[in-house]
Write a structure and sequence with these properties.
The protein has 277 residues and is an all-alpha fold. The protein contains 15 helices and no strands.
Amino acid sequence: MRDNRPDWLAHAILLVGIALFALPVWLAFAGSTQDPDAIARGELSLVPHLGHLGVYATVLAEGVPGVTPVWHMLLVSLGMALVIAVGKIVISLLSAYAVTFFRFPFRMTAFWTIFITLMLPVEVRIIPTYAVMADFGLINRFTGLTLPLIASATATLLFRQVFLTIPDELVEAARMDGAGPWRFLRDILVPVSAVNLAALFVILFVYGWNQYLWPLLVATDPSLDTINIGLVKMIGVETQTAWDRVMATAVLALLPPVAVVLLMQRWFVAGLTEGEK
């Protein structure tokens, strides 16, 4: 007989995990509403001062002196994350489609070449990548921020595994119905892969949003500062650090990826747990 009693140990572990993740966020929110001098002295209170919430409007419009306004950095990060996520999905979808359903010379060689790049993260190939961007004149360009990051061997592998579950009978039926390659991709493969597309979009959006090293190298123009770069610059200013503005910016930087995860949570979980189509 199934025991329906709650597992208190599991619940306790989950609550501890939630507390460990939530406490730094709460500290950042509480600190954003307090006096920066008190924070600098280590007198950070866990109770937020709600009368100081206007710091969020101030930091969005102004940031800190000598640093790009926060609203502009958020837009740069948002554009970068969207281009990277959509670019990775489109290129990976087409790559997986080609190596799964088309027969051409060195097809598997091409697939394994893509797969091997999983062992070459951005940090390993960053010098030759920077040299290529410099040769194309893409340093301090938005294209240079995004172009080297829109290929994904992981997404290609995942899409290929999904496509391999498509029964041959469905492929033959589409061919007999007169569906060409593009129609087959649009009307059958994309709908079949919808939840996987959603799950990958969430993962890749967060990946693009969190980029730090590559934007730090390829974009020295302040107008291309991402929110992560801006946070470091805020802390590194020569004058006393405005910790309330820094913490308010950190909270604002959390909102877009959290919103994407919450809005697409159902599809994200389905894409990670769904079995055969």
